Structure formats: structure tokens, C-alpha cells
Amino acid sequence: EVYFKNLSKQKQKEDMEKNGNNHKLRVCVATCNRADYSKLAPIMFGIKAEPQFFELDVVVLGSHLIDDYGNTYRMIEQDDFDIHTRLHTIVRGEDEAAMVESVGLALVKLPDVLNRLKPDIMIVHGDRFDALALATSAALMNIRILHIEGGEVSGTIDDSIRHAITKLAHYHVCCTRSAEQHLIAMCEDHDRILLAGCPSYDKLLSAKNKDYMSIICMWLGEDVKTRDYIVALQHPVTTDIKHSIKMFELTLDALISFNKRTLVLFPNVDAGDKEMVRVMRKKGIEHHPNFRAVKHVPFDQFIQLVAHAGCMIGNSSCGVREVGAFGTPVINLGTRQTGRETGENVLHVRDADTQDKILHALQLQFGKQYPCSKIYGDGNAVPRILKFLKSIDLKEPLQKKFCFPPVKDNISQDIDHILETQSALAVDLGGTNLRVAIVSMKGEIVKKYTQLNPKTYEDRLELILKMCVEAASEAVTVNCRILGVGISTGGRVNPREGIVLHSTKLIQEWSSVDLRTPISDALHLPVWVDNDGNCAALAERKFGHGKGIENFVTLITGTGIGGGIVHQHELIHGSSFCAAELGHIVVSLDGPECLCGSQGCIEAYASGIALQREAKRLHDEDLLLVEGMSMKKEEVVSAAHLIQAAKLGNTKADSILRTAGTALGLGVVNILHTMNPSLVILSGVLASHYVNVVKEVINRQALSSVKSVDVVVSNLADPALLGAASLVLDYTTRRIY
């Protein structure tokens, strides 16, 4: 005896060394109900039969421990398995909340059990809410999970739960080729997927020849013959409880009318199960001579009952899976198994308004014999699963990897790269030039195109489209992704509709112009349009001195005078889109005439046009040129000549500049008294010549409460283009509008 024991130990040692693993794999199998135990039991027997490789711990929870459902934990004990832990996790109730509370209760109790057991791997079956609690606990406690029957498709919440468990599980045992493909499509590692077949088929395919008449007589009566009775098993559909209860009522009515001996099993523990039991009792099923209502049938006996039935009816997965192995006719009711692979023995009744449809299905199916189906297994699942378990290397990293399909341009998944390449097409419609630029998220002008601004509407729009198309094509070569088009233009603009309502005299034929529609249609991009002064303010808010400032004003000093007002971080447009026409603030009642038709506007004093007018007047009076200045005969007098003369000591030119700066300063004082901003930004080519005079006027003329305002010169090289880009970049990338 000692000799044979030693010989046996030596053989076990050799087997373990051959498998390259001297550590017994500690396997925890957790079973929640009678259905999952029928799939797990064959695996448990296989594990128990090889103690040299495995240590088995059994955890029982869920409906196994409820008397109303037959206290089915007893069949586990009858199978001679030691139950390590019993967890009462079902919260009694009849709605969805009870299911959620049951999951929560299981999550509270499971950590202590898993801490004590410390399994190497946990085997979880299927798609029940209890199984989700098991998988969640194991995953969070860094315990490897083997999921049985993942990748399948059915109806109700079960689909979502099954796929959620798949995402938590490290290893997968599936039953069909389609399920395997679904798992691969869900980015699971192919090397960790085993196509084994359904473990219950190992028992099914060897069970039909056993003594079955005694089992049939025990559950249905002595006078019942094979193929002359019905097995009914229907569960509530948790995503549509009312409809499933109605369908169950119609099913019972049809079965009563069909008048055949019927074995009715109680439903699963789900929201709506108690209501279904009430329907059974309301119709007197438990006392009807043709019916036998039972809470549970041991799986070995249940196999014999469905194998020799005239028909099975309901919405249990058993009907579309296991019963096909015997060719027994099945009527699948409702949507609970929608998407399951089925054999030709299954007739689907998706919906029923009356019992007639179900009754007709019974008449079609009852008593038929179909070819046996092996869609879900060939009877050799358990050996494959045990071999798969032995191959698990516990030294491999626990963190599971997902096998995502290749994604083009993977570098774009880097956030820094995205921020660098997200760009806008910016368009600036000036009085002289038309400019288009590619502007990056960081405010860098990647590429710029400049053309003279045409005089007619048709030519101007044609040129805008041509330049935008060219820039959009070029953006691809410089690795920029264009998010949209922003347009800065003079005049009054309705930014909501993208329409120029009317323009200044500097841009002809530019009133009531819809810019958004033709450009958006041509480029297939969103288009934003706003006034050039507003765009300058937006540029400062995003890239310049106004960044992070709640209230500030921007004044553009160029050919004309414009501006934009930002109040509480938002641009002000006004009720008729005429806000921030700062160039037309009147600072003198009898001042020079402005292009707007009024007199004494800031623009009539301080704009480039106004300075050019005064330079011409001095030149005509031979008072412009001083020593160090020269002009060609054909050269046009401009504001630049006036500024040059002032720098070289021309007192009259200097006086004109100071008057212009004073007019601008008075306008700023009016703005301070109206809006009370904390910052004033002077932008444009003339800003540096005006800033000191403006500060002097504020100190002299403004109320003491606003004298502390900061007045600065913009450091942005191209505020019009940057502002147009800001229209796009702000609205396409921010999360709150």
C-alpha cells in the first residue's frame, strides 16, 4: 500500500512538472441559481477529479438559499461538494430597485469571503445581476476571472450585464463560433478566449438513454406518455415587466385551452417574478388537473423531462440552447432571447396580443421531432476548460490588455498633438487688402495669403472662396486640422446669422451680405462672422492682454477707429449689433466731418484717414516737410508723413497728433464712465503714438474712481486675423456655451 501511494505521488509530481507548474491553482466557483449551477457543475466535477492540479472552493449565494425557489443549494450538497460559504444576498422585492439592492448587498459581503479564500481565479457564469457583483468584487480585488458563456447575444438587461462581465474578465470560455467573434470584436485578447462549447452539453449528450419514464411519472403523473406533455418556463423581462406579465397571462390561457399535461416551473428571482407567481395562482394553475407547478427540478431530471416532452414553451435560455440537443420542439416567447443562435426546432413568437397566436404555435409545434442540434457544444467542453485552466500562468501581469483595431494616425491620440494641430481659417476683410490665414490653437499664424480687396461684391466673394479653398488644401500638407472659418469684416454684422448688415464706406457693395452660407457650403465647415473691432477684442481675450480679464475694452486705431467690449468675460454685441462703435463717440460738437455723416467723432480726429487729411492740408500749405524729409513728386501724402514730420520737430504736425490723441483720450474717458473696465487696450498702427496722450487725458479728465485703469498697447501682431480665428477656436473647443 505504501509503495503504491509513493508511486502515485511520484506520478502526480511528474504530471505537475510536465505542465510546468508546481503550484496548485486555487479555483473559486461561485454559483447564484439553479440555471448557472447546471453549467458550472460539470466544471466543478472536473476540477474535483484532479486534486493534483486544483483546489476547489465553492461559494453559494443568490436564489440558491431562498425557500421560495426550492433551496437549491441542497443539490450542490447532494453532488458531494463542500460549500465553503453561503451568502444571503437577495433583497426581497418586486421591482428593479430590489435587484440593485441585491447587487449592493453582494458587493458588501463578498470582499470578506474573497479575502479569506484568496483564490487564484474565480469562475463566473453568464449574465445574471448576481454574477455582475461577483465579477466586480473579484476585479477590484485583483483576482483573475474566467467568464463562462461570454459573447452571446440575447434580449433585456442580460446583454448589458453579460458584456460588462466580459470587460471585467481576464479569460473567456465561449460556446459558439459567433460568440467567439463577438468577443474578438469587443477587443478581447484572442489568446485568452477558449471556444469550448457549453459545459452542460457534456451531460446532456450522455443523458438521453437513462431511465426517464420514472422521472416523467414522478413530476407529471403515472398516466403521462412521452411526447405528450409540455414543459413551461417563463421569466420576467426586466426591461419591460408589464408586457412580460401580460405575455405570461396569455401563455397560461393558451396552455389551459390546449389541454395537455404541463409542468410549469417558477420564474427566476427578477423584478416582476412575484407578479408572475400571482398570475399563476390567480388562474389556479397549482390546483388545475392538467398542471404541475414546481419551484425546482434537479438538472439531471430536468434534462430527461425536456428530452422527451412534446414541446417546451417560454423564454428561458434553456429552450434555445440545451433543448436543441434533443430535437424537442420549442416555442420561444417575447424578446428575452432575441439574438441567440437557435436550431430549427425553435419557433419564435415575438409578440402576442391574444392567446390565439400562442395557441396556434402550440398546434404547430407540439409532438414534432426535429434533428438534434449541436450549435452549443459537442460534449467535450469540460476537458478543454480544464486544459485551459492549467495553461494559465499566474506570473503574467494581472492587468488585462485589450486588442483594439488599428487606428489611422495614432499620433493624433496624443493631447499635445491635437492641441497643436487644431486650427482655424481666419479671413480679414480690410478696406485695402483681403487676407486669409491658417491659425493654430496657440495663436501662431502657420500660413498667410494676401490679395487686394476687389471693389465689387461678386469678385470679392469669388476671391474669398478661392483663397479659403487654397488655404484648406494647404492645411493638410502642414499637418493642420481645420475646425471652421472665422471672418473679420468692417461694418455692422449679425453674428448669429453670419450676415453683414451694412458696411463702412471703405468696403463697397457690402451690405445685406450672407457670408456664412456660400462659404460653409463650399468648404463643408462651420463659419462665424463678426465685426473687426469685436474680433480684435476676442483676439486679446484669447491670446493677448485680455486673457483672464473679466472686463476690458479694445480700441483699434487704423484706417478707421473701431473696438470691442468684453464684459464679464463675454463680448457685447448690443440689441441691434451696434455695440462698441467706439470710433463714432462724439467728442466735439463742431469738430470735423466724419465718414458716418456726423461731426466731431473720434474717427474724424484720430483715424488714419483723418491724419492723412490733415497731412495733405499741411502739405498743400507747404507746412509738412521739414529738414530730413523728402517726397517724390508722384508720392501720395499719408498719415505716415505726418508722424515722421512730428518726430523731426514739426510743431504743427505734432499739434495735430496731440489733438488726435486727446480726442481718443476723451472717448476713452467716456468709455470708462460708461463701462468701468479694468483694462483698455490700444491696438493698431497708431496705438503707440497715442498711448501717452490718452493716459494724460484720463488723469486730467476722468473721475478719480476710474483713473486707476490700465492702458496698454496690444502686443499682438495681427489682431484681426487672430480674432477671426478665435471665433472658431473658442466655439468649437470649449465645453460650455
Automatic annotation (TrEMBL):
Cite the UDP-N-acetylglucosamine 2-epimerase domain residue spans from the record.
53-390
List the SUPFAM superfamilies hit by this protein, alphabetically.
Actin-like ATPase domain (SSF53067), UDP-Glycosyltransferase/glycogen phosphorylase (SSF53756)
Q: What is its EC number?
A: 2.7.1.60, 3.2.1.183
Q: What is this protein called?
A: Bifunctional UDP-N-acetylglucosamine 2-epimerase/N-acetylmannosamine kinase
| Family affiliation | In the N-terminal section; belongs to the UDP-N-acetylglucosamine 2-epimerase family. In the C-terminal section; belongs to the ROK (NagC/XylR) family.
Protein localization: Cytoplasm, Cytosol
The record ties this protein, via InterPro entries, to:
ATPase_NBD, ROK, UDP-GlcNAc_Epase, UDP_GlcNAc_Epimerase_2_dom
